[in-house]
Automatic annotation (TrEMBL):
Any one Pfam family match given in the protein's UniProt record, by short name: HTH_24
Organism: Achromobacter pulmonis
GO biological process, one term: response to amino acid
PROSITE patterns: HTH_ASNC_1, HTH_ASNC_2
Domain HTH asnC-type: 1-62
CC per GO annotation: cytosol
Name under which the protein is recorded: Lrp/AsnC family transcriptional regulator
């Protein structure tokens, strides 16, 4: 990764539909080498895909966070938990964390009632969970998708 690659990534984060020509104007390189660099970053996994940024509040989704503590930290318990998390569409993000809990989940649902249903259908029925603590996001102060490159 060099300065030009970083410039391309910054430009794509601003507009994921930018053409090679538009990118070339931003980074000072002709379109063909820019295109090759983009393709190389896609192939290596630096660029993982392109998608529309949807305003969650405009489609009726609220944000909840769940702090999860496991009963045991055996490889099997952790693997089962992580697999289940990956399969739950309501969970947008999951982090293994330090502190009083083991995992932090970002969950998007339509309402507190929908979150309650999610808890009972998913988390409360999952073996190996010792404790779940919920944090309700009242309002969003900052939501940034672009990485600070």
């Amino acid at each position: 990764m060099d300065k030009t690659d970083i410039g391309i990534l910054k430009a794509l984060q601003e507009d994921g539909r930018a053409s090679a020509q538009q990118l070339s104007e931003k980074v000072g390189l002709s379109a063909a080498p820019v295109w090759r660099r983009v393709k190389a970053m896609e192939a290596s996994g630096v660029i993982q895909g392109y998608s529309a940024q949807v305003d969650r509040s405009k489609v009726g989704l609220g944000c909840m966070f769940a702090q999860i503590s496991l009963e045991r930290h055996s490889a099997n318990t952790v693997e089962n938990f992580e697999r289940s998390v990956r399969d739950a569409p309501e969970i947008l993000e999951c982090y293994a964390v330090t502190g009083d809990s083991d995992f932090l989940l970002k969950i998007l649902v339509e309402s507190p009632e929908a979150y309650d249903r999610f808890l009972h259908r998913f988390l409360f029925n999952m073996p190996g969970i010792r404790q779940t603590r919920t944090i309700v996001a009242l309002r969003e102060i900052k939501h940034e998708q672009r990485l600070p490159l």
